[in-house]
């Protein structure tokens, strides 16, 4: 209390224009506090800004890694269906079973198709018999032509003899050696031989036309045989299509057909998933500036406890995903809100990786593309 009174008295006793004792020490301390507070606030603000820039990967923290969670494992999921309609006679496979190419999956009732094959084989035999008979008809027609040609030569020979008889009788009629009646008979015989020649020539021409008919008919019969052979092949194909087999090695999905069910042509019976896998990553268009084919990629799989796999960019879609949608947006009408489009990127899975066989189509993955990695050619695989 005495100290406070002393200080107050000292301030009161201080002349006008002079600094009270102790004031000079207080002002520098207040200045230092303000400076330290300003610096601390600036440091906190700068730290916050840097944290935001780092979180959003903005300069100066831009990364060469382009990542997205909009990615899925893909595979060649093949829907298996019959080409024919009928009742299911056999289903020798089960859900999720591994199969080899050519293994029987479903067998339809084939009794009708067997009978159709037998029917087409019988029709083919009929057409082949008709074709063989045509060959015999041609040989017969050729023989008839030879016969008619001989008959024509005989008619010509008879005509020459008749000419000689007529000339001789005309010479003898003058001296009465031949009667008028004999001359008339000779003339009639000569006219008859000329008519026989004309008749033989006509018969020969008829035979030639018959041969041509047989030749032309053979083309029709050969076409009928070809048609019957095609019908047999179609019947065989239909019979073989009663057996629905695996087109390639893979694993089946759920079996959607049961014994005794009636199925239509093209009905979905089950799905077959081959072993080949890849990843489709839907990258934002703002991430595509440095993405190139052949760049290294890593991705983690949610279903495998975020296990990391490696791969490479194989191909980049020629258009954004919205361009392939059924209903495309029309930005020329209504209000416009700019939305970052997605560009699908196909990524191969490097072979020989542990647990890669556990990848399943449809699994969610997180993809990271290293845009500064070495670009390597990716081998194309046949589907």
From TrEMBL:
Region (Disordered): 1-26
Transmembrane regions: 35-56
Any Pfam family the entry gives: BSH_RND
GO BP: any one term: transmembrane transport
Record domain Multidrug resistance protein MdtA-like barrel-sandwich hybrid: where: 80-273
Keyword Transmembrane: yes
Domain (p-hydroxybenzoic acid efflux pump subunit AaeA-like beta-barrel) ranges: 279-369
Source organism superkingdom: Bacteria
Record keywords: Membrane, Transmembrane, Transmembrane helix
Family to which the UniProt record says this protein belongs: Belongs to the membrane fusion protein (MFP) (TC 8.A.1) family.
Record protein name field: HlyD family secretion protein
Natural source organism: Pseudomonas vanderleydeniana
